Amino acid sequence: MDQVSRKKKSFISNLKDSFIQWIKENIGIIIALIILCLFLSLNPVTKHSFLTLKNVFNVLRQISSNLFLACGMTMVIILGGIDLSVGSVIALSGCIAAGAVSRYGLPLGVAIILGLIVGLVVGMFNGFVISKTTIPAFIVTLATMNIAKGLAYVYTGGSPVRVVTKEWQFLGAGYIGIVPTPVVILIIVLIITSFIMNRTKTGRYIYAVGGNAQAARFSGINVAKVKFFVHAYSGLMAGLAGVVLASRMYSGQPTAGEGAEMDAIAAVVVGGTSMSGGFGKIGGTIIGGLIIGVLNNGLNLLNVNSFWQYVVKGVVILLAVFIDYFKNRKA
Fold first, then answer.
1. TM segments (predicted)?
2. Looking at the domain assignment, is residue 151 inside a domain?
3. What is the pLDDT of residues 122-181, one digit of tens each?
4. How many CB atoms lie under 10 A from the CB of residue 243?
5. How many CB atoms lie within 10 A of CB 263?
6. Contact at 8 Å (CB) between 161 and 95?
7. Most buried residue, 103, 116, 152, 197, by CB count within 10 Å?
8. What is the pTM of this model?
9. In total, how many domains does the chain have?
10. Which residues does residue 161 pair with via DSSP β-bridges, in sequence order?
11. How far apart are CA 147 and CA 125, in angstroms?
12. pLDDT band at 188 (very low <50, low <70, confident <90, very high)
């Protein structure tokens, strides 16, 4: 019994230490998030609508798709690369999954798996080309972005693929208890991603390759295998985001996911991941995703013109990159 108690105390102590370390690592962006929330809570225009339970759940539901992408994008950027294809993969995977239900009458589980496979296949293709050639990830994923977008339009003929069954809507618009289903899925994904990055050899290899690919290769790490895995995982996350978003919109739409890659990159960069590679934490990405989500929600509640919203998000990304630049220069 004493041994069990000691193990329990050790686990709680480790959990406490990890939480304190996470706070220390992300104190800057946590303060920024608190200031943003305080501003929206005290602002006369938004104070009666921002902190309501309905709006909080609405924000969490909206950021879930972005954080799915950001989980994969964090790994990609730590490698020193970028994945521009994820927005188009959202459209393609969502349309394929919705079409499997509405056009072919396939079970919901099969449709979800098909959507995930679409994302995984695109990610694997990206990973294969990037790991086997010297073509920059920017160029490869720019090409697959256009390919996936084109295939989504070809498959749908440019029209939404509607699905109105309650089973389909549960994944993106339903609740488990009082918690939105996408939020529950997001928690599971964040735990898996954090485990991969912090508790596995693959996670250590990702940081090593991002820090110095040549040194990692000389130390015996299979650099090509690491790059392939990271891009495949990013594609899988995009496929999941596509299925969940299609469920939330009650249809697969070829226009879905436009600009989603920018929001994902913004969440990762604001969360402290270095664009030069080798450094970043999924904990920071979570805060970055919350900042982007709260910012989007706040701008909508303030009735800010959608055109100006692009400007604001662009400024936020630029500030985050400048902070990263000065940190690296100081180091």
1. 27-46, 67-100, 106-128, 135-155, 175-197, 228-250, 307-326
2. yes
3. 999 999 999 999 999 999 999 999 999 999 999 999 999 999 888 899 999 999 989 999
4. 30
5. 25
6. yes
7. 152
8. 0.92
9. 1
10. 252
11. 12
12. very high
